[in-house]
Amino acid sequence: MTSRALTVGFDLDMTLIDSRPGIHACYRALSARTGTYIDADLAITRLGPPLVDELVHWFPAERIGAMADLYREMYPTIAIAATPALPGAREAIEAVRAAGGRAIVVTAKYEPNAKLHLEHLGIEPDAVIGDLWAEQKAEALLAHGAGVYVGDHVGDVRGARTAKAYSVGVATGPCPAEELRVAGADVVLADLTEFPDWLTAYAH
Fold first, then answer.
1. Distance in angstroms (rounded) separating the CA atoms of residues 138 and 199
2. pTM: predicted TM-score of the whole model, two decimal places
3. Residue 184 in contact with residue 78, Cβ under 8 Å?
4. Where are the alpha helices (DSSP H) in 17-124?
5. Burial 95-129 (b: 16+ CB within 10 A, else e)
6. Residues whose CB falls within 8 Å of the CB of residue 100, separated by 6 or more in sequence, listed in order
7. Residue 159 CB neighbours (<10 A)
8. Which residues contact 62 (CB under 8 A, 6 or more apart)?
């Protein structure tokens, strides 16, 4: 294990939560509200990057800021209740605590909405830091002294490596296990149900 006290960072979308149903519903609502076609089925296959990275596929540049604001405003009433935790999510957070560590969530999602998801599901990390993507995630990982970062996207692997944290990939999102390995993940788990056993071995 690293010499740092055990702090483990987790991504949110498709790592701790299956955000596809809620995001799908929110894109459909945004499409209906604006009269602009959005392929929600396609959009939920490429979760991970910031919202604006998806909106550029459907709206002209001058409308992106306003559409992002509208989406985030609509999101709590549409997406929160529709979004379940992924298998092993709660147990993964509890495993970090049981090992005497701290668990933080570092996500590209708009921070207030990220917190609403976790509150709704009764998942209580020690800190939630939003609005950071890929290499930017290293800012929060370094600030909190995280020696491990767990995520489902190659962007999460890049964030971990930028922070010189141990990169744990989970193959529950848009990036298959081999893609996570090629990107530089130190280990790849099928899902978070495998995390407690992995952490026990890592912490010893």
1. 21
2. 0.97
3. no
4. 20-34, 40-43, 51-55, 64-79, 89-98, 111-121
5. bbeebebbbbbbbbbbeebbbbbbebbebebeebb
6. 6
7. 28
8. none
Please write the tens of the pLDDT for every residue from 131-171.
999 999 999 999 999 999 999 999 999 999 999 999 999 99
| Beta-sheet pairing, 7-10 with 102-106 | parallel
Cβ atoms 130, 110 nearer than 8 A: yes
The pLDDT value given to residue 4: 53
For residue 3, pLDDT beyond 80: no
Q: Which residues contact 202 (CB under 8 A, 6 or more apart)?
A: 1, 148, 166
Largest Cα–Cα distance of the chain, in whole Å?
56
| Distance from C-alpha of 157 to C-alpha of 151, rounded to nearest angstrom | 7
Cβ atoms within 10 A of the Cβ of 52, count?
15
pLDDT digit string (tens) for 81-110?
Answer: 999 999 999 999 999 999 999 999 999 999
